[in-house]
Automatic annotation (TrEMBL):
Transmembrane segments: none annotated. GO terms for biological process: dGTP catabolic process. SUPFAM superfamilies: HD-domain/PDEase-like. It holds the Pfam family HD. Residues 48-203 form the HD/PDEase domain. Belongs to the SAMHD1 family. InterPro entries: dGTPase-like (IPR050135), HD/PDEase_dom (IPR003607), HD_domain (IPR006674). This is HD/PDEase domain-containing protein. GO terms for molecular function: dGTPase activity. GO terms for cellular component: nucleus.
């Protein structure tokens, strides 16, 4: 199977690995076409109709780009201590593609507003469903690009749990800072949705993620390597965080956005015991997430 090239409005031509193409063609990934990235925000910004589908592809692309840039710098330094393999780059690409598979209707509205009201006291995050769906996908597609240990690593990149734990957490912690960076929140997931959301909402921003990718490097701290940036990148990263602040102030936390999302959540709550879902037509909407892998 050959690679494919798609044209993205934010990043231009994106070349997709054959494994990514097979994942995209699954029902689990295709459902993302119907899940709005910004929930009820389109009632404030009519252009905010983009979905988790294109965001996932963009995140996959940036994860690959940053991984390859770090790989190239390690090779140039001829380090005996560090290495990023092509297999790890592919795992990053797939993890970026699959990191949002578990989102419910209207994205965060489902887990942050509807689920908490429908199931008080229970804890669930969309990453939990993403991990289950990744496992479900690899059980049905035919591929020989990644082995079982690499599939486990992909799931661990999406969310770190005891079941998915791999040795790379200790030996290569910087790989876990590419897609979802718990250390400082600078990661490619945010780089894509900051750029994509601003573009679709018609908001201006100054952050240049291409610059950050090119200047990123690995620095050893307390015996472990982490992704770092030179001092000259200070103002660009400041613009990144200011972009986040602007999006929250003008879009994500807009009073109309929140009011609309509260009404949608109330509608879901009222429908919860009336609408029945697969697999046996007897399950309420509030436990729909349990069957997302089907």
């Amino acid at each position: 199977m050959e690679t494919k090239i798609i044209n993205d409005p934010i990043w231009g031509p994106i070349e997709l690995h054959p494994l990514c193409i097979r994942i995209i063609d699954t029902p689990q990934f295709q459902r993302l076409r119907s899940i709005k990235q910004l929930g009820g925000c389109s009632f404030v910004y009519p252009g905010a109709c983009h979905t988790r589908f294109e965001h996932s592809i963009g995140t996959s692309y940036l994860a690959k780009r940053l991984g390859q840039e770090l790989q190239k710098k390690i090779a140039a330094e001829q380090s005996d201590e560090l290495e990023i393999t092509d297999e790890e780059i592919l795992c990053l690409e797939v993890a970026g593609l699959c990191h949002d598979l578990g989102h419910g209707p209207f994205s965060h509205l489902f887990d942050l507003q509807f689920f908490k009201k429908a199931k008080p006291g229970e804890t669930w995050e969309h990453e939990d469903a993403s991990i289950k769906m990744i496992q479900g996908i690899f059980e049905i597609i035919q591929q020989d690009y990644v082995n079982d240990e690499e599939i486990k690593f992909i799931k661990d990149l999406v969310k770190q749990t005891d079941e998915t734990c791999t040795e790379k957490r200790e030996t290569k912690p910087f790989l876990y800072e590419i897609i979802a960076n718990d250390l400082n929140k600078i990661d490619v997931d945010k780089w894509d949705y900051f750029s994509r959301d601003c573009h679709m909402l018609g908001l201006h921003h100054n952050f240049q993620c291409e610059r950050s990718i090119k200047v990123a490097r690995l620095v050893k701290h307390n015996g472990k390597y982490h992704i770092s940036f030179p001092k000259s990148e200070y103002f660009n990263l400041f613009d990144m965080f200011y972009t986040r602040f602007t999006l929250h102030r003008r879009a994500y936390q807009h009073s109309v956005t929140k009011a609309v999302e509260m009404m949608i959540a109330d509608a879901f709550l009222n429908a919860d015991e009336r609408l029945m879902f697969r697999p046996n037509q007897t399950d309420y909407m509030s436990i729909l997430w349990k069957h997302m892998i089907i």
